[in-house]
Write a structure and sequence with these properties.
Strand order of the largest sheet: 1-2
Helix content: 55-70%
Radius of gyration: 18 Å
Distance between the termini: 36 Å
Structural class: mainly alpha
Number of strands: 2
Number of domains: 1
Order of helices and strands: HHHHHHEEHH
Largest sheet: 2 strands, antiparallel
């Protein structure tokens, strides 16, 4: 959204903060949302997706992103023809960036532990700040490391994190079509 010009980086951070405020009102686990749908559950899902994107980008030094996870999930579900389960999501995450995704799921999606935003946000040059009546907010950390600032730039510039295999395949296809 930032790359398209729909919102500014500051507005994106503000939206993350709004998701955090909504998520803090969630009264169930993310997995057990059931009939309790609405802003708290949807905001929790948005923060999970953001967390996974940051973790994948960090684990792969920016070489991969949530887009790669979604492509892997698409492949695992036969182009979306088969309903997916956690094991499919976990496999797509793991093939993209091998981390302990099941531990994350058990603690923060199936379980009731809050998302580890205090650990994830700094990876992207962000931090939790303030604790006013609405609780903490998310803001850009001016003291972020160079690697965190680079990850943040990739997030807001919409860099897709296309895998090297896919990038090489696309270049090969472009070269073949250039010869036509």
């Amino acid at each position: 959204m930032v790359r398209s010009g729909i919102i500014s980086p500051g507005e994106f951070v503000h939206k993350l903060s709004a998701h955090l405020q909504n998520y803090r009102r969630l009264t169930t686990t993310l997995e057990a949302g059931g009939s309790r749908k609405g802003p708290p559950l949807y905001s929790g899902g948005a923060l999970v997706a953001f967390s996974w994107d940051v973790q994948v980008r960090n684990a792969t030094a920016g070489g991969r992103s949530l887009g790669d996870v979604l492509r892997a999930l698409w492949d695992r579900t036969d182009g979306g023809r088969r309903p997916y389960e956690w094991r499919d999501i976990e496999a797509a995450l793991d093939v993209t960036a091998p981390l302990d995704w099941d531990r994350f799921f058990q603690a923060h999606i199936r379980g009731s532990r809050p998302l580890p935003l205090g650990d994830i946000l700094p990876l992207a040059g962000l931090r939790l700040a303030g604790d006013d009546d609405d609780g903490p907010r998310i803001e850009v950390d001016p003291a972020a490391s160079a690697s965190a600032r680079k990850l943040w730039a990739a997030l807001i510039e919409g860099q897709l994190g296309v895998s090297s295999e896919l990038r090489n395949s696309l270049r090969s296809q472009e070269a073949r079509h250039a010869d036509d």
